[in-house]
Design brief:
The protein is α/β, with parallel strands linked by helices and 316 residues long. The protein has one domain (29-315): Rossmann fold (3-Layer(aba) Sandwich), CATH 3.40.50. It has ten helices and eight strands. The chain has helices spanning 3-23, 81-89, 107-128, 142-155, 157-163, 200-211, 226-229, 249-264, 289-292, 297-315, and strands at 32-38, 48-54, 61-67, 93-97, 130-140, 172-178, 238-243, 271-276. Strands 1-2-4-3-5-6-7-8 form an eight-stranded mixed beta sheet, with helices on both faces. β3, α2 and β4 form a beta-alpha-beta unit. α4 (142-155) crosses α5 (157-163). The longest helix has 22 residues, at 107-128.
């Protein structure tokens, strides 16, 4: 096991311990029910997904697909369960999947897992009462990266060939990213949002986990950051949720400026940056706060803004 793999495993254990302590004894939001499905028949624990619907509500509902974060090394379909149940209770069908984690697999394998889950969702959406013609794709932190990457792959035949996947039969009305970390070739950013030269050593250790032992030779290496995989594409409406106390907030600010430029150039239909710098629960408004604390008033305000954005995007 390499040094980087040991660090990744220790980080994952630390993140799990933190989450278990944070969530211990806290009730899940009411008004939604959940069912579990295996999206691949290989018996792998990470090839499963959760489907959430509001209780006692029949009929076809708009679909929200959530991709959890966790620095590509941690988490599963239950990590964002509280937020997904809250969203479902507002009148939506919500799906959140697990995918295999680094260092067991590389980023390319994670994308293939996600696309296997998307195809499973497309095949079974009718029986769940989910409308695949109206879909909001969302993700937090590393899930923000994976959700935007997945969207762009769906929009680009070239990217689909590079990643070895096919597009599912569904229409994405919008993309909502929570505190996204999308520039994987420069995880640590300086005050001016540029790549930090002081953490070049970290990047050298991290990239073999994402791309394999010889990162530069990976066929996806030059198509793995937002500024790479969005090139030449026109995106549907995009929303970013961020806050002042986000430890990776420089990524959100860099990405918001980049997408605002895309809007001016006609390469993104609409953009909203929901940035919170003053709030009643400011001490808790940290990285992915609305995922970690979906019961907070500020979290519910942000989630309601995301749902409003989805509703407006359906009209575009």
């Amino acid at each position: 096991m390499t040094f980087a793999e040991k660090v990744a495993k220790n980080m994952a254990k630390s993140m799990k311990k933190h989450d278990e302590k944070h969530k211990s004894g806290k009730p899940l939001p009411k008004g939604a029910e959940v069912r579990e499905y295996a999206y691949l028949p290989d018996g792998h624990e990470m090839h499963k997904l959760n489907v959430y619907r509001p209780k006692d509500v029949n009929g076809v509902l708009p679909l929200i697909i959530d991709i959890h974060g966790g620095a590509w090394i941690y988490g599963d379909k239950d990590l964002n369960k509280g937020m997904c149940m809250y969203l479902a209770a507002q009148g939506y069908c919500v799906v959140g999947m697990s995918y295999r984690l680094i260092p067991e697999v590389t980023l390319e394998d994670q994308v293939r897992d996600i696309f296997d889950s998307l195809h499973f969702i497309a095949r079974h959406a009718r029986e769940w009462g989910a409308d695949t013609s109206h879909v909001m794709l969302t993700g937090d932190s590393a899930g923000g990266h994976l959700s935007s990457l997945s969207l762009c792959i769906c929009l680009s035949a070239r990217l689909r060939e590079i990643y070895g996947v096919t597009a599912p039969e569904m229409h994405f009305d919008c993309l909502v990213m929570s505190h996204p970390v999308c520039e994987v070739h420069s995880i640590m950013r300086a005050k001016d949002f540029s790549p930090s030269p002081h953490f070049a050593w970290f990047q050298r250790e991290f990239e073999p986990l994402l791309f394999g032992s010889d990162p530069g030779s990976s066929k996806i290496y030059n198509f793995a950051s937002f500024t790479q995989y969005s090139r030449g594409l026109t995106l549907p409406p995009v929303m970013i949720i961020g806050c002042e106390r986000d430890v990776y907030g420089k990524h959100s600010k860099f990405l918001s400026a980049y997408i605002e430029k895309m809007v001016r150039e006609g390469r993104c239909k609409r953009f909203v940056f929901d940035y919170t710098d003053k709030a009643s629960e400011r001490d808790k408004l940290c990285h992915v706060y609305e995922v970690m604390y979906p019961d907070l008033p500020d979290s519910q305000r942000a989630l309601t803004a995301a749902l409003d954005f989805f509703c407006e995007s359906m009209k575009d």
